[in-house]
Design brief:
Elements (H helix, E strand, L loop, with lengths): L1 E9 L10 E10 L2 E10 L8 H7 L12 H12 L3 E4 L2 H14 L6 H4 L1 E4 H8 L7 H8 L11 H15 L40 H17 L5 H6 L6
Parallel strand pairs: 1-4, 4-5
Antiparallel strand pairs: 1-2, 2-3
Helix pairs in contact: 6-7
Length: about 240
């Protein structure tokens, strides 16, 4: 199963008001493993950036002055995501902007005609109703290291979201690149090598003295109330895991 975790940064909040994408970041997963392949581009929007948006991502119009426009990277971007299952946090926002860019360059097919889409924000809201489910909040709740995220950035946020998604959907899986063929690059895709992101240590959960005492009390109750004894004792007996 091929998935692409995607994020964008923009000049403002509404594509309908003429705002544009200024950064696209994608990382690839195959069978819940990072492959090391990614797509990343800064884009010249040809318009001003709202002050509020720049305060979030820190990308200035001066920085983007010599960057390509969306039309120039369209072919390599679409080749990278075509046929994949996209994982996006608040997907309607990013898909709306991408569809707007595709319409501007007269591409007849929109993103949901090219890719499946999973909204990780919707998944998080189902799992944690009534709680904050921003990417930062999920990192804190799920033990994902986001210490390098002082500002939003499309590639960094896609890397972080990949980790959050793996934990959110039933376990971390493997973030290792070992054993994955990273040479299978579709024609037309411009990829500049693998990325490396320091991985924070997984949280170690230990029982408090009170919790350990409650556990032992429950085991003792099971031993005394069951004629067959306590299954936990059989599982933890020496040699039971051989």
């Amino acid at each position: 199963m091929r998935q692409v975790v995607l994020d964008t940064e923009t000049t403002g909040l509404e594509a309908a008001n003429g705002h544009r994408i200024i950064e696209i970041g994608c990382v690839e997963l195959k069978n819940r493993r990072l492959t090391g392949r990614h797509f990343h581009e800064y884009l010249n929007p040809g318009r001003a950036i709202d002050a509020g948006a720049e305060a979030v991502h820190g990308i200035s119009l001066e920085f983007l002055a010599d960057k390509p426009d969306f039309d120039a990277v369209k072919t390599s971007f679409l080749a990278f995501v075509e046929g994949a299952e996209l994982i996006i946090h608040n997907a309607d926002f990013d898909i709306g902007f991408l569809d707007h860019e595709l319409k501007r360059v007269r591409e007849p097919r929109r993103m949901r005609q090219r890719c499946g889409v999973i909204d990780s924000l919707s998944l998080a809201r189902l799992r944690y109703p009534g709680q904050r489910n921003s990417l930062d909040a999920l990192c804190k709740r799920l033990g994902v290291d986001n210490s390098g995220r002082s500002l939003h950035g499309a590639l960094l946020d896609a890397q972080i979201l990949a980790e959050v998604y793996l934990v959110l959907t039933g376990g971390q899986g493997s973030l290792s690149l070992e054993g994955v063929n990273t040479d299978q690059t579709p024609a037309g895709v411009r990829v500049t090598g693998g990325f490396e992101r320091p991985q924070g240590a997984l949280p170690l959960v230990t029982l408090s003295d009170t919790e350990q005492a409650a556990h032992e009390s429950m085991l003792e109750m099971l031993r005394s109330s069951s004629e067959e004894g306590c299954l936990w004792d059989a599982l933890t007996a020496p040699g039971s895991q051989d």
